[in-house]
Amino acid sequence: MVSAFSVVDAPARGPARRTTGGDLPPRLPPPGGDGDGPDREPDPRRPILDNARLATLFLIVAEVMLFAGLVSGFFVLRLGAPVWPPPLEPRLPVAATAVNTLVLLASSVAMLAARRALAERDLAALARRVGVTAALGALFLTVQGFEWVRLVRFGLTVSSGAYGSTFYTLIGAHALHVLVALLWVLLTLQLIVRGRFSPDRPGMMRACAMYWHFVVLLWPVLYVTVYLL
Amino acid sequence: MSAVSAAYVDTEHAEHHELGFLRTYVFSTDHKMIARQFLFLGLFMMILGGLLALVIRWQLAWPETAVPGLGWILTETEGILEPSTYNMAFTMHATIMIFFVVMPILAGAFGNFLIPLMIGARDMAFPFLNMLSFWVAALAGVLMLAGFFVPGGHAAAGWTSYAPLSSVTEYTGVNWGQNLWCISLFVLGISSMMGAINYITTVVNMRAPGMTLFRMPLVVWSLFITAILLLLALPVLTSGVAMLLFDRMLGTSWFRPSGGGEPLLWQHLFWYFGHPEVYILILPAMGIGSEILPVFARKPIFGYHAMAFSMIAIAFLSWIVYGHHMFVSGMNPTLGLSFMITTMIIAVPSAIKTFNWLGTLWGGRIRFTVPMLNALAFVSMFVIGGLSGIFMASTPVDIFIQDTYFIVAHIHYVVFGGSIFGAFAAIYYWFPKMFGRMTNPALGHLHFWPTFVFFNMTFFPMHILGVGGHMRRIYNPTQYEMLQPLQWWNVLITIGAIGLGLAQIPFVINFFWSLFAGRKAPVNPWNATTLEWSAPSPPPHLNWGPRLPTVHRGPYEYSVPGSSEDFLPQWEPSSAVPAGARRH
Question: How far is A29 from chain B (nearest CA, A)?
Answer without folding.
Answer: 7
